[in-house]
């Protein structure tokens, strides 16, 4: 039976890669894609998702507009990690009719409805700030127990941050929502932290092989990464490489790979976690409680190692879309 997915995304370049991985996966049915602010304003996120679906010839999948800012307080400045539009600021052929292609139903309502219609069958893959998920549990407190499982790309386990000194981007953009989700979602929860993605990096030579495949999706990925500093090995020498050494990292794709093929994850930590909401340095950091000081009843699974050969094959396959029709 096909695995049912909802993808919640702030569609930057690595989200696009993760979405294409789900599209290419056998026995996966994407019920809908919900959009949230993060890598770009939510209006750009919606357009980015529509573009990815168009490139892969899968425009029948419904796309829903969700939260435009965090649960509490003013919106943080949107990162330029993947360009101001989330896809490298290189696409000129913007769709003037994009709003007509977005579903009228709000993303959070759609999420609740789709999960309620398919109880204990839906895997929710969260690739951006967790605002839509936090709102879902506020509107329907039973929402988490109706899920099959939850996969999150976000958080950090070593206190190494990529947007602040101690916090990872997705959690830092909306710490309150990350706190709510990790306190109130008791379904099986699998987290790919920033550090775990970085520690399972691939080579830049593989990245060149990946984007130079002869297929529309690969050509699209080559275009949107061409001028993006986040896909420049030179830029990374002064950023990520300081902590983890050189390598190509497609963050969100690790969480998606864990969902579509659980054998990709070869080692993980099972532990209680809590998101820190206070402090000028640690706000948004995910604390890992391996000594049970918090006395929580619910643990999560945090990926530490993956099968890089299997992961590489999933990436390669994801960019061979749409399949040529014979």
Describe the structure.
This protein has a single domain, classed as Inosine-uridine Nucleoside N-ribohydrolase, Chain A (Alpha-Beta Complex), CATH 3.90.245.10. The mean pLDDT is 93. The protein has a nine-stranded mixed sheet, with helices on both faces. Helices cover 38% and strands 17% of the residues. The chain is globular. It holds the Pfam family IU_nuc_hydro. GO terms for molecular function: hydrolase activity, hydrolyzing N-glycosyl compounds. This is Inosine-uridine preferring nucleoside hydrolase-like.
What is this structure's SSE topology?
Blueprint: E1 3-9, H1 13-24, E2 28-35, H2 42-55, E3 63-65, H3 98-101, H4 107-117, E4 122-126, H5 131-139, H6 143-146, E5 149-153, H7 169-173, H8 175-184, E6 189-192, H9 194-199, H10 204-211, H11 216-225, H12 233-236, H13 240-244, H14 251-260, E7 265-275, E8 286-289, E9 300-306, H15 308-318
Helix pairs in contact: 1-11, 1-14, 1-15, 4-5, 5-8
Summarize this structure briefly:
The protein is of the alpha/beta class.
Which architecture per CATH? Answer: Alpha-Beta Complex
Strand content: 15-25%
Overall body shape = globular
The number of distinct β-strands equals 9
User: What is the number of domains?
Assistant: 1
List SSEs in N-to-C order. EHEHEHHEHHEHHEHHHHHHEEEH
User: What is the CATH domain class?
Assistant: Alpha Beta
Question: How much is the radius of gyration in Å?
Answer: 18 Å
Q: State the end-to-end distance.
A: 26 Å
- The CATH superfamily is Ribonucleoside hydrolase-like
Reported by name, the CATH topology is Inosine-uridine Nucleoside N-ribohydrolase, Chain A
* Largest sheet strand order: 3-2-1-4-5-6-9-7-8
The residue fraction in helices comes out at 25-40%
**Poorly predicted ranges (pLDDT <50, ≥5 residues)?**
none
Helical/strand content category = alpha/beta
Largest sheet data: 9 strands, mixed
What average pLDDT do the residues reach?
A: 93
Tell me which oligomeric state these chains represent.
single chain
Number of helices: 15
